[in-house]
Amino acid sequence: MKTIYKSLIAALTAALALTGCQKQEPFYTAGEDDYPRILNSEFSTTDILTTFPSVYTSENFVFEIIVTPARYTTVEWFVDGDLVHTGNKIDQPLLAGTHKIKVVATTTKGKQTYRKASIEVLSSEGEPSLASDAKSRWLQQGKGVTVSGENLTGVSRAFLKASVFGDETSKAEISGLVELQNFVNEGGKISFNVPSDLAEGDYLLILEKEDGTQFGAGIFGVHADEYADPGVTRTTIWEGAADINWGDSNVQLTPDLFADVPVGATIVLHYEMITADYHALRVCNFDWKKDFVAQVDAIDTEFPDSYEFTYTDEFKSYMDEGNMVITGFGYKLKSVEAVSKSSSETTVWEGSQDINWGDANVQLTPTDLADVPVGATIVLHYKMITADYHALRVCNFDWKKDFVAQVDAIDTEFPDSYEFTYTDEFKSYMDEGNMVITGFGYQLTKVTVK
User: Fold this and answer.
1) Which of 52, 186, 424, 431 lies in the 20 to 30 Å Cα band around 111?
2) Residues 420, 365 within the same domain
């Protein structure tokens, strides 16, 4: 199996050569009564969590701990709160996903120390996988959810496993796997219900095939609230409790309430049904001659609790003339909300490409960047993979001009993304041909523009 880290260091080798000398390093002179120490330099001594380079599920997680006093210390390895190995060296297969690792060193006298780290394990080719966008991975307590994926044939069950180090008290009640109920696998998507009593936090989602084989599908978050799109602004224009009854009882919204509502925003009417012979909704202008929403009947079945429409240029002109009238019959209007999305990052490329110089890179065409303005920031999103070194370079189609001259050691300086400004000069490079994103030792996952 491929080793993540080789823990032999030159200083240790030199110390071993001197074990017969009278003067020895503390590593060898520490006794049973001393506190244990973990000597590996890979672990952070600050509050910053150590992150191991990513591996694929086809590889094992391999690491060796150096401790003192060596003869009197036992090392235990916990992965997501479960004890998986005892001994200085671990050689352990892991499911795809981000795992929390805790290494505990305990002496024969009960003295103890520990280190914490995390590692991301990537799915190997052909394994079941699920969508990675934030909305898909947001699970709300007590709600049903549908998530798209790939290679899902034969998947018949799904579970959640708490992602913890093992010392969090907030999830002490979570033990082992929580099976997700009402599981359906159909048409490249899975659906299931999220337990209402499941504690908020991060969980590894595990897919299981009919033969019992399990696959990790990455981390999903369990939340009490519903998902809110980043960059989305929700503004309540009106709030109350009005039983709607045509001309006798309606709600009128004035132009000043819409002064800050941009064209393109979504207007959402929130209501509840009341007992009535029928139910209908209409939204019109002040003299009832122009419709924002032509009469919609049977809203109790088609739109039982809300109705939404887009605020167009034409509708803005209606508001400039006077009030918006929300009318109809058989429902109680509770609020009117304007939902608009501010400008945010735009994705110009998305995938999963292990970069290896000329053998494997990503090329963006002039069409891909046609709408990118000069001065925009281009962000390269990636994951570190096991490699002898890590480097990044972004150049033009014939590798003679650089957008980003070679950057080495991006695993330490830029561990998950790198960004640069799209200048006039860079635009001229694109006019000549493709942009080549290359280097070694990382997996490019997305290119965005902000």
Assistant:
1) 52
2) yes
